[in-house]
Structure formats: structure tokens, C-alpha cells
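I am still learning, so would you mind making up any protein sequence you like and the C-alpha cells describing how it folds?
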Amino acid sequence: MGEAALHNREDEALAQAAVDALVGQLALAPKPGLPDPRDLTARATRRDHSALRWSARALLPGLTAMAAAARRTGEPSARLRAELGAIGRSTEHTVGLAGGGHRGALWTLGLLVAAAALRPDAEPADTTALAKQLAAHPDRRAPRRPSRGSTVSARYGAAGARGEARAGFPHVRRALTALTTARKQGACEPQARLDALLTVMSTLQDTELLYTAGPLGLRHVQAEARGVLEAGGTATEPGAVALRALDTDLSSRAWIPRGSAPLLAGALFLDALGSSGARRTARPAPTHPRTTINP
């Protein structure tokens, strides 16, 4: 196999691992307030759940291109940041044609895929540190119109998606730690992933929740997510009861903690890459026959 073909396969493997992580996040249930396989119409998102899974796969070419760009550039430079931004905007258009969604996931996974391509042997903390360096560069060619997220961030002083990246994805790292801890404590894979999601929800300044529910609503959701974890997590009966109550509460209010889902996908991506001292290879996230916990 030639060097170019080998690099192409490595880039595609990284991108596929990221898409698998996103699809794994979508397949998880019950996710409080978020679209999951129980929903034919994905509740308040008004997007068919199968369409969300389909459009997730449309990220693959763009993420592959991001990995290739990072490998060619070789450093987390302003030049690479500009190229990632251009690829990201093109990929958003492609995903829109496939059904839409996943803008937050594209931002999170794009930076992490590029960082992983820069240093394939890095530990997760080093990968997020490289992503932080990339995010620190301004994307000078990005449209100047304010987004809803940036408007809410400015109004309430929330970090938002950009702030999360510029801080080195602290919630991705917390989710990864929660995932590992839950597994060690005997949780099955869906329970471990739900505990990781709730860990993110318990502290994230979710701009979507701030927009729809305000600061009081955000604090309410954070407190309820912490309550599930403090009850023992989703692997325990008290935790499972608290999870069902939170799910019912968010569904009835039509509150969507949308910011948490891409960060869980980021954690699943880093988890799939592994974190041993040996050179890592991109591989799909582990599949499990059950990704749903019976409510």
C-alpha cells in the first residue's frame, strides 16, 4: 500500500470513528429531553429520528477532509483553522441536503478529529489541548451574522460551543471520566453512557436551555441531572427512577438540553480511540446489542 493510500485510510478511519460516536449517541435511550429511538418524530426537534441518523453519516466526507487537512498542515495553526472552517461550512450544506442537524456535533467532532490527526498517539487530554489551540484561532472567513447561541452567550455570559472548545472541551473530558468510572462500577454500556450525558448536563451552561427556559430553567435541569447521579446513577433503581422523572419533566416542558449531546459524542469518539501509551489506531466505538434502558 502506498503512503498516500495509507494516509487516506487513516483519515477515513478517524472520520468513521467520529460518525460512529455520533450515531452511538443518537441510538442511546432514554435521553432526557433529547431525540432518541423511542421517538418517531424526535419530539420537539420536529426531525424524524431515522433522518437524524441518516444525516449523521453525511458528516463522513467532511470529517475525512478535516483529518487530511490536519495531517498535511502538521500543527494547530491559523491556516489549519481557516481550512477547517471552510470544510465545515461546506459540510453543513451537505448535511442540510441529507436532512439537517448536527451543527454542534460537526463543531465538536471536527476539532477533535483534526486534533487526533495532528497527533495520533496522543492521550485524550492532549487531544483536547490541541483542539483548544485550534479553537483559539479566529475563523476570519466565517459569516459575521450572530447566531442564536452567540446571542444567548453574550446575554448571559455563558461559554457556549466556542467557549467550550477554547477551554479545551472540559465537559468532554468530564464525560469521558464518568464513562470510565461507571463501567468500573459495573454499569452496562448504555447506563455508563447515560451517566456520562448526565454529568455533562449537570454543569453545562447550555445555550439552548438558556434560550428556551432562562437561567432558572437551566439551573433546574442541572440540579435534576445531578440528582440522578447522586441517587447512584442510572445503574441503580433510585437513579433510574430519577432519570424517568427528569425525562418526563423535560418532555412536558419541551426543554431540549441540545448542547450536551455533541459533547457526549466527543467523549465517545475519544473513548473509541483508546488512551494507552502505545500508538492509537482509529477504530469504531464498541457496539452493544442494547443501547436502550427500559423506562
In short: Residues 41-46, 275-290 have pLDDT under 50 and may be disordered. Residues 3-27 form the longest helix (25 residues). Residues 3-139+159-269 form one domain.
